[in-house]
Amino acid sequence: MKKKERTKNMQPDNTLGARKRFSVPDTYVIVSICVIIMAILTYIIPSGTYERIIDPNLGDREVVNPESFTYVENSPVSVLDILTSFTKGMQSAGDIIFFVFIIGGVMEIINATGAIERGIGSLANKRFIDKLFIPVFAFIFGIFGATFGASDELVIFAPIGVAVAHAIGYDALTGLAAVTLGAAVGFNAGFLNPFSTNIAQSIAELPPYSGITYRLVIFVLMFIVTVIYIGRYAARVKADPSLSIVKDCRCETEREDVDVSKLERMTARDGIVLLVLIGGIGLMIFGVFKLGWYLDEMAGIFVGVGIICGFIGRLGPNGIASNFVSGAAALTYGALITGFAKAIVIMMEDGQIMDTIIHSLSSIVLALPTGIAVLGMYVVQIIVSFIIPSSTGQAATIMPIMIPLADIVGITRQTSVLCFQFGDGFSNSFIPTSSVLMSYLAVSKVPYEKWIKFVCPLMIVWTLMGAVFLVIADMMNYGPM
């Protein structure tokens, strides 16, 4: 960044100070503030509890008895309770945190083999890519988003997407959108997403990846809409480059296009690596749906896939270990925020105000038709996503509130998970607090304001589609539970 030139009278630069005063706080800061606010509320909000009962109709799962709310003696938390809530949160969310670490480590091993990068390079050199660039790239990265919850791992492919777009006659925005919005569609539908879907379902005590059929329908419909949206913009730009939103930006004026023809091609070894990866996913799906596997077994499969792919890719034992540690370390921020966010829930539980909050919310939504109530939950989730960008952090924070609320007002837990997915997923392509989005924009040299101008209409369409999907889910009693 260039240093700001001083004026002749040596006036102090107040602009930088203003920027610092209004900068967006780090997610850890926001979550910590939420913990403190929740601790203060334990002195203000009356304590209350619901009776939890076992419902044999829901697989002997514990649910709230909506008729059992009673106020109890206040239990305000102490300063020590606040300080220890973070370690308690880490312990409570330990299985999820370690699962995230393992996914990150294994994906880094696979990335280190170069199989995925060379596979994309081979695809970029195919003749048919001229006409099918947008749907093909969007679908590939959509599958990555839907099956691995891939987001920041795909940042390295944004420059390739931009290079291919330039070679075809599109602008950088088209190439970036094909990668990032394709991945976002998969992440939003999340039919096999180990992060947002699986974690939210585990908190809701739902079978892993249950309700997959409806999510596949959502993926297909959102994919079609997104490809059409990007394609219409790309066609206009190709016909008249002056219509490009980024025509005066560095991504176009300082183009350093990658020579697509010189990208490395996929080898037979890379093909075997990808087959092992696909086979591992297939085995995991079979185990989840047929053998009752859960986080431990799924993590074990991923570890096995990582080791096998590492040896096939000639990384060696040390290379596998170092890449695993590197990949896990890269997800430390997102993994640990889950424990921090869990501290918010611990404050509410220790102060016995969670049930009071649920009771107050349920009193409002019970007076509404459930179709409207589910949209209210949707709006709340969207607001929360602006405050806590991390998917796992949001799940740990909001799902313990949303699940009993859904039980009380008659909305299925599966629908509440879908509500969480939409609120979280859509915002990741829009909010400035999303580190993944900002990374995509940085490597593609696309200014944030230009991206917003491009993506805003699609975000409105996505949000409305999400509302329709949720109303339909409520009408068909989307289950299980």
Give a nutshell description of this structure:
The chain contains 21 helices and 4 strands. It has 481 residues and is mainly α.
Detailed description of the structure:
This protein is mostly helical. Helices cover 69% and strands 2% of the residues. The strands form two sheets. The chain has a two-stranded antiparallel sheet. The longest helix is centred in the middle third of the chain and has 28 residues, at 212-239. It is globular. Residues 1-20 have low confidence and may be disordered.
Strand order of the largest sheet: 1-4
Distinct helical segment count: 21
Mean pLDDT: 79
Question: What Rg do the Cα atoms give?
Answer: 24 Å
How many strand elements? 4
How much strand?
Answer: under 5%
Low-confidence stretches: 1-20
Shape: globular
- Structural class, please? mainly alpha
Helix-strand string: HHEEEEHHHHHHHHHHHHHHHHHHH
Give a quick account of the main beta sheet: strands, pairing sense, barrel closure: 2 strands, antiparallel
Kindly report the oligomeric state of this protein. Answer: single chain
Distance between the termini: 53 Å
Range of helix content: 55-70%
